[in-house]
Amino acid sequence: MAAPRTWSLPGLALLAAVGLSCGYAVERAPSSLSADAPRLSIRTLDNESSEPGLDRLVSEALRREWMRRGRVKLVGDPARADWVISGRVLPLRIHTRTMSSVVLALEQTVTMRVELELITRSAAGPSRHRLPSRLLGESEIYFASADLEATRKNRVEALRRVAELVAERAVDAVNSEDWP
Question: What is the rounded distance in angstroms from the CA atom of residue 150 to the CA atom of residue 153?
Answer without folding.
Answer: 5
